[in-house]
Amino acid sequence: MTALFDSTHSALRFALNYSASTPRPTMNKMAADGSLQRKEIVTPGGKKIKVTTGSQMRRMANAPLRGLDGAAQAALIAKQLDYLTDPQKNCVIAQHKAWVLPCACKSPCCSGYRKNMGWNKAVEELCTHLRDEAELSRVKGRKGLSTHPTMRRAIVERFFVPGKRMVLSELAEQCGVTQQTIITHKKPIEQFLTDTLREAMTHLDTILNTLGIVGHLDY
Which of 82, 81, 90, 157 lies closest to 122, judged by CA? Predict the structure, then answer.
């Protein structure tokens, strides 16, 4: 069977952005379709999991990814994110889903784009996880790394969207802290996001290659 994508990144960009314009009930129906089967694979960590595959994949491999075929393939790829932890899943979404979507409301205040709620939700959940983890690891009597909410959000956003990066001196002024404080908090947050995203992509590489969705493309 010919692979559909040459990398896990391209497969995820397709699936997560295709699903943004596809009604969720349709995606759910396709992901739960009776033609889907379960296949056991071993993850890089040695854990055995059963992933979802489908009888339509051979036909879709040689067809343009549009219409119902495209929606079904997007649903199948997106379904594999269910095998990740919540932070891993949110990192993958924040990395591959568009953070803004085109807007044609023609309102005087419209910039031509609107916030992508799916991306925003993933970032919000990552910020909540980072806050909770900082609180759990805080040493009694010390402030620790429970960051200012605005600072934490800006650091997470600038990790996934380079174009949104606020100058550190401006962020420090906005949060009422020194630039060194920003740098001190930035390092562990970005390390967590880097490690979590790497673990997630390693798992998804294994799953999508095993399913034949990702691999060598025959032109």
Answer: 90
Interval 119-146: pLDDT, tens: 999 999 999 999 888 776 554 555 555 6
Helix locations, the chain, DSSP H = 8-18, 24-31, 57-61, 67-79, 86-96, 117-137, 149-160, 168-175, 179-210
pLDDT in tens, 77-111: 999 999 999 999 999 999 999 998 888 777 777 77
Contacts of 57 (CB under 8 A, 6+ apart): 1, 73, 76, 211, 212, 213
- Give the residues across from 50 on adjacent strands: 40
Domain map (residue ranges) of the chain: 102-198
- Pick one of 1.10.260, 2.20.25, 1.10.472, 1.10.357 as the CATH number of 102-198: 1.10.472
The one-letter amino acid at 49: I
Per-residue confidence (pLDDT) for residue 36, from 0 to 100: 44
Query: Within 10 Å of residue 128's Cβ, how many Cβ atoms?
Result: 14
Token readout for 207 is 């799953």
- pTM equals 0.76
